[in-house]
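Re: the request from the purification team.
They wanted to know what the chain is likely to look like in 3D before they choose a buffer screen. I agreed to run a prediction and write the result into the notebook, where they can find it.
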Amino acid sequence: MNEKIRQHEFNGSWLWLSREKTQRRESRVFLRKEFSLDSMISFADLWISVVPGYHLYINGCHVGYNRGMASGKSCRLDHYDVAQFLDIGLNTIAIEAHIPAARTTFTSSGEPGFWCQLDLNNTPFLWTNAYWKIREVDFCRNNPPMRHVALGATLQLDLARFPASWQLSGFDDSSWRQPDILREIRGGSAELQDTGFQQLIWDETALESPVLAGLFRAEMPFSCLSYSRLKEFSGGTTAAGTFFFAEEEFDTDLVVSSDDPCIIYGNDVELYRSSNRATEPPVIETSESFKAGESLLQTTAFHVKRGWNKLLVIQDTLPHSMGFFLLFPGQPKDRFIFRCKPEHAAEEGWSLTEPLELPFAFAMPYVELFTEKTKAVCSSAPENINDVSTFLHSCSFYPYSQFRSSPLLDGAEEGNELVRPSAESSTESNILREGEYAVYDLGQLMYGFPCFEFEGSPGDIVDITPGIHFAENRIRSVGPMGRKTDTVILSGMGKSKDVWHRFEPMGARFIMVTVRKAAGKVSLHGSFRFCNADTATDIDFHCSDPLLEEVWNKALLCREQCIKNSIIDNPTGRCCQSLTECFIYARALYSFFGETPPVTNALEQFADAQLPNGMIPAIAPSGVHTFAPDSALCWILWLREHFMAGGDLEFLRSMLGVLKKLLNLFGISSAKNNGLLSTEIFGRTEFLNDSGNMEEQGVFTALNALYCRALLRGEQLFLAAGKPEEAEECRTKASYVASAVQALSFDAEKGLFADNCLHGKRSESFSLEANILALYGGLVPREAQQGILEKLLKAFREEPGRFSNSRILGFVLDTLCACGLQQEALELIRISAEFNRRYENIPTYENLLIFPLTAGNCLIREVLGLRPASPDRKQLYFNPACRCVRHAKGKVTGGSQQILVEWELDEKEELTVYLDSNFPLDIVPIIPEDVKGCTFKLGTQIHILQPEEKA
């Protein structure tokens, strides 16, 4: 507990709805409190904590958003200055919280709850108690599909169920109930902590007019079955069958979308079987688990015979399962007419029998469909489509000719555009009808919340799809990270517009709006709400290489997208706080800005999530426990980087218990395998082998190399904290691991490390990645280093994309620079930048934003030449890449500290350096020997040290 929290007077209680009163499906909880002020207030501070997350409004103004950070060990409080939002007279605090139906990777695992307190002029004024008002809204009209395992459900929001203008003063909340009091804020074992939350400046960019509009229509056969239309559906083993008539025999692909384990039979032959359940991620998610990023769409082959054909789908369902969606790509839409019975006069749809008195594991193709339990379910109506993303992905999109000049259509084939079939002009670009769509361009990838106001008829259905890629006249809605389309059903009340915003933030370059069903016109006015962070405004970087400057600018943009009071892995992906990405991004932040609150918070949150056995999860805070050995080891490397960035010895000592438990976990477990880490004990890695180029089994070379590196970093941390015995233990173990892996995996004749050693037999694969990581971890004998480096440099040119977005890129760059190959490291950055530029607009290409931030870190350390020589940053090495570029200048900021550097190598090979800072700073220069002369121009607080003078 920091001193500010310890001394502050906090009152009130945690509020919520008791468990038995809370809906089990996707829902939102609204809380309100009205109060009066007699005069304007000079100082108003609001403290708040909500699990799993919240949007905060005062008098209808959006003040802030954050994810809940509470756990069993700590309760993290956010702080806002809200004086500017208060008025004389009646005021209202309003909170909106989202309750996901399943555990997700981006919500806390703690029990839901809400607390806040408003201080006026430094005195507590109001706080949460029984006099607040609360209401829960089940906003899902249908059973929505999951975005992906552990990513929450897609939104299918019925706006008729939402309270209009609930954030404003004077709203009638007489029907709302009083909340239940859970516990006092000062009660319980959870320690109160300040999150270091930086109040963000929220802004909106209007989506004034689309850059593209047109018609969309389904042109492939599809059929789906949703259980949402069934009364008292309780789940279990279900069987659904349908029939279609074919004039001839042919083969076709069948695409399957399902959140639940299912088996599909075609004419009594098994076509597809899956045991995955996206709606219930495992409590412990390992590298073996079905996880976010794996495709939810599966394709199988189906041989269609002449005459009547039968499809049978058997599912193991939950009460709120989406059902299934089947698509037949490449076939004309009218080729399949699905009927409940093999009769031309039969009703269209499926015959559903549920529940079967049969365990799913015993399912067979011979299931009696036509029993007393059989129900006919029609699936042809637009409102019955359950997987909207897959449906839109299968549609064809035809732009109107009025938008033919859009840059999105540059290079598009002529003849595929349409004239709007109406006398209305194209200025009506924000009015759509059923079967029409519009695309809005944000201008660049942004992270925030799409917001829309709609006017239409009751029951009109509008789908909103964010995206980063434009192809085939539309935004791609289905990709490796799952379903991205949200749905709103309009209330059409007429008195006020329907208002919608996405609760969780997301990254998008484009927003596509499609009207799936409408009685008439749908008028829409959109915006994108985003927050500005000013931490990147006071840094600068320029050099004589324009490509490296471009990389730097992308690094700044990525920083803005990924750091918003917390660190997110990828704004277009899981949007969670992943340990691996946190480590990568934190290194960039240390180089750009020095130590920052989001980094400290993230490091603490992973430490806070440590399990009793020492395991540190790969994602935190999270409702899903994830573990991978390489990810956990990165926490040790990250802690050392953190200490070097700020030199906070008190913080380091507070983390020693976590460090010891983690090392003890690896020590005890590795003892079962002669002190080495094996895949059989720890499972597969999360990121070391993300390219799939290494054979990962047995004593995995790459993992043990990372373990060795982590032990050496642990030695340094224990020494800094005054723990020589623990430091010596780490050094001894690192030495043993290095020699043991050499004995098992190093082939002296080849001069290379094998990927693994299994049962005493060395792998026949000697991958480049394994040998790079062996170098990084300190496993490679000195005489073999040059040979491995030569192989590495050759691969850069033969396979330019090999490391372009790999999470081990930072390790590769560190290894090159440590071996004195600074020029080669920067050449790798150039090669990767060119590769990414060439492929970043391909829809199937995932740019994880890792490259720009990894490269940006390297540019500060190597081009500007600034890297810490001491943990307190009072001493820096100066080792500029003057053999790679001729000129560089920049400004690096850390808190209130600033460093200015500019250097230039002239035509006489003489180096001129200007250095200044606003605090006392010692510089240890390391200048290439072939530079013929070096002149330093120093600020008054700069002192040049000789290398032997370094502390």
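For the purification team: The longest helix spans residues 649-670.
Please add any questions underneath this entry.
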